[in-house]
């Protein structure tokens, strides 16, 4: 993807788009986010989740996740230690362990490798894994298959396109939180993706 596609699709400021561009491109290659519809849906969603590729760590302390067995938070302090990080806010010991296994890195002892506060203070490793973790989540939830149903030449906020985009949102968010903002990012970015041949 180009800098323009990443910037406009995610609704990011130029500096954040520039920092993430190589890592988002690597992520898209790794997880076959390789058609215009897949890429734009991915960017619009992670753009919302990260405040325009800015936040790579949840603003809340994570204390609310303490003792949440469903997230694998079975040790004292797990809530704060494994709070949401990455461009799609990976949360909980179970998910951090899954990523550790996939990438053969130790995120249990080094959870901030997934992201540190925001893009301005992240090092290259944090930018890399913040992006890759979003791709992993996207892939694990089979969101490419849904994105394939999106017709970029039809309005995103009508009919089948809207129904499909809402399904993507629900798999990421558990509901439809921020749907208007996600749709807005898509609408702004679509002109950068129409008539672009698949990779």
From TrEMBL:
InterPro entries: Cell_Wall_Dynamics_Protein, Lysozyme-like_dom_sf. Transmembrane segments: none annotated. PANTHER family: FAMILY PROTEIN, PUTATIVE-RELATED, GLYCOSYL HYDROLASE FAMILY 19 DOMAIN-CONTAINING PROTEIN HI_1415. This is Glycoside hydrolase family 19 protein. The lineage of its organism: Bacteria, Pseudomonadati, Bacteroidota, Cytophagia, Cytophagales.
């Amino acid at each position: 993807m180009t800098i323009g596609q990443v910037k406009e699709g995610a609704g990011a400021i130029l500096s954040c788009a520039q920092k993430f561009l190589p890592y988002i491109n690597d992520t898209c290659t790794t997880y076959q986010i390789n058609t215009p519809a897949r890429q734009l849906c991915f960017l619009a969603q992670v753009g919302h989740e990260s405040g325009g590729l800015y936040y790579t760590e949840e603003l809340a302390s994570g204390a609310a996740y303490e003792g949440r067995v469903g997230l694998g938070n079975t040790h004292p302090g797990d809530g704060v230690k494994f709070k949401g990080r990455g461009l799609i806010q990976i949360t909980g010991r179970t998910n951090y362990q899954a990523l550790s296994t996939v990438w053969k890195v130790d995120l249990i002892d080094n959870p901030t490798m997934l992201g540190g506060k925001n893009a301005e203070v992240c090092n290259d490793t944090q930018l890399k894994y913040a992006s890759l973790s979003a791709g992993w989540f996207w892939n694990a939830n089979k969101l490419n298959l849904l994105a394939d149903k999106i017709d970029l030449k039809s309005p995103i906020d009508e009919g089948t396109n809207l129904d499909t985009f809402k399904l993507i949102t629900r798999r990421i968010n558990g509901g439809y939180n921020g749907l208007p903002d996600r749709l807005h990012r898509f609408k702004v970015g679509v002109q950068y993706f129409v008539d672009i041949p698949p990779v």
